[in-house]
User: Fold this.
Amino acid sequence: MDSKNIIHNALNLSPAERVLIIETLSKSLGEPDIDIDKYWKEEVEQRYKAYLSGKVKSIPYEEILKK
Assistant:
């Protein structure tokens, strides 16, 4: 079944059933991806260590806005 048929069939459901489908689909989009979370945790830690060691310098927000 393709998305066009799914949408057509969903529009024929009762409002309560459509809300249930919307909530279920919405929740599925908000679930965290463990692999991505792990990658970003490692990346953040590396960047923070680089900042603390002086390898990376911060730029004041005002300077960024000027560019």
Q: What stands out?
A: The two ends are 50 Å apart (CA to CA). Residues 34-53 form the longest helix (20 residues). The chain is about 75% helix and 0% strand. The chain has a mean pLDDT of 92.
